[in-house]
């Protein structure tokens, strides 16, 4: 009987000793993010560094920004990393997010057939470039998925004074897909499309597409982090989510972002400590 008690006691001590390590190893957060960060290889490069430092696993759901915010509003996520400021601020105002933290940026680029049938090159602004595509009736492929890229595209059409409707305009098509597939469709159709710079570099210029307009301040592309509000969704892993956000905003995380490159080119530029550009 004494030997049995001793065995049970030792087993209990072993369980208690192993319990903290088991909890730490199983700890994770669900990150709702964009197809651009996924398709560019950003998470494959960044997340292992965070996970090694904090023993918190990050599970990524890569969808368009609109869907990522909807998923998080439904309680399916701990943190979001997206790029549509107005939608992010509306998400927080509705009580779904705690605070918005700018973390990095790049830019959108307008790409199209290398021969540029709409004469977009040399346009004085992105809105003027879109106006030339409309005037020429040149093929354009939209993501059509309420992603951050799609929202910016619609804003640029609006700035050009143009209302686009796939049902009414034969040259305007919705892909209903992520950025990588949208680029491939544009290449197949010799069409124009709006693309984030990171995916453009990572996809290595599919088909005969080329950048035909860039550098306009209206193409500035800010990414931000938001913790899903645990007051709305008590199951949110707020402690681990906060650790992730703090790491991304820290000197270490910002250096990791700056160090991520594809084909020798930097894809994202950290700006957690800078004033956000308008």
Topology, please?
Elements: H1 2-26, E1 28-33, H2 35-39, H3 42-54, E2 57-62, H4 65-73, E3 79-82, H5 85-93, E4 97-113, H6 126-136, E5 140-142, H7 148-159, E6 172-174, H8 179-189, E7 193-196, H9 197-203, E8 209-213, E9 220-228, H10 238-249, H11 251-259, E10 261-262, E11 265-266, E12 269-270
Parallel strand pairs: 1-2, 1-3, 5-6
Antiparallel strand pairs: 3-9, 4-7, 4-8, 4-9, 4-12, 10-11
Helix pairs in contact: 6-7, 10-11
Search tags:
eight-stranded mixed sheet; 2 domains; 11 helices; D-Maltodextrin-Binding Protein, domain 2; two-stranded parallel ribbon; disordered N terminus; alpha/beta; globular; 278 residues
Describe the structure.
This protein is α/β, with parallel strands linked by helices. It has 2 domains: 2-105 and 222-270, 3-Layer(aba) Sandwich (D-Maltodextrin-Binding Protein, domain 2); 107-219, D-Maltodextrin-Binding Protein, domain 2 (3-Layer(aba) Sandwich). Helices cover 44% and strands 23% of the residues. It has 11 helices and 12 strands. The strands form 3 sheets. Strands 1, 2, 3, 4, 7, 8, 9 and 12 form an 8-stranded mixed β-sheet that branches. A two-stranded parallel ribbon has the order 5-6. Helix 6 (126-136) crosses helix 7 and helix 10 packs across helix 11. It is globular.
CATH domain topology of the largest domain:
D-Maltodextrin-Binding Protein, domain 2
Q: Main sheet, how many strands, which sense, barrel?
A: 8 strands, mixed
User: What level of helicity do the residues show?
Assistant: 40-55%
Sequence stretches where pLDDT stays below 50 over 5 or more residues: 1-25
CATH fourth-tier homologous superfamily of the largest domain: Periplasmic binding protein-like II
What class would the helix/strand composition place it in?
Answer: alpha/beta
Number of domains: 2
> Secondary-structure element order, as H and E?
HEHHEHEHEHEHEHEHEEHHEEE
| Top-tier CATH class of the largest domain | Alpha Beta
Distance from N terminus to C terminus (CA atoms, Å) equals 75 Å
Average pLDDT over all residues: 90
The CATH architecture designation of the largest domain is: 3-Layer(aba) Sandwich
Overall outline: globular
How many helical stretches?
11
Q: Report the strand count.
A: 12
Q: In what range is the share of β-strand residues? A: 15-25%
Radius of gyration equals 23 Å
């Amino acid at each position: 009987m004494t030997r049995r008690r001793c065995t049970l006691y030792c087993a209990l001590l072993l369980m208690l000793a192993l319990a903290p390590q088991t909890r730490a190893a199983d700890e994770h957060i669900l990150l709702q993010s964009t197809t651009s960060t996924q398709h560019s290889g950003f998470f494959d490069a960044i997340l292992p560094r965070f996970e090694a430092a904090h023993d918190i696993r990050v599970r990524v759901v890569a969808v368009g920004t609109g869907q990522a915010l909807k998923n998080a509003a439904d309680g399916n996520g701990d943190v979001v990393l997206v790029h549509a400021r107005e939608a992010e601020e509306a998400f927080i105002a509705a009580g779904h997010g705690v605070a918005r933290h700018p973390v990095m940026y790049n830019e959108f680029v307008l790409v199209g057939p290398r021969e540029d049938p709409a004469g977009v090159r040399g346009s004085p602004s992105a809105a003027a470039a879109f106006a030339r595509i409309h005037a020429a009736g040149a093929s354009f492929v939209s993501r059509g998925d309420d992603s951050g890229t799609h929202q910016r595209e619609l804003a640029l059409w609006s700035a050009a004074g143009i209302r686009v409707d796939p049902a009414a305009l034969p040259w305007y098509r919705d892909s209903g897909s992520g950025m990588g597939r949208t680029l491939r469709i544009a290449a197949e159709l010799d069409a124009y499309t709006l693309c984030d710079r990171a995916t453009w570099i990572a996809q290595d210029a599919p088909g005969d597409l080329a950048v035909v307009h860039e550098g306009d301040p209206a193409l500035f592309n800010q990414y931000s982090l938001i913790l899903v509000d645990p007051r709305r969704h008590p199951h949110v892993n707020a402690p681990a989510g906060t650790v992730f956000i703090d790491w991304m905003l820290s000197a270490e995380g910002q250096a990791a972002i700056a160090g991520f490159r594809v084909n020798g080119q930097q894809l994202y530029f950290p700006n957690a400590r800078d004033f956000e550009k308008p």
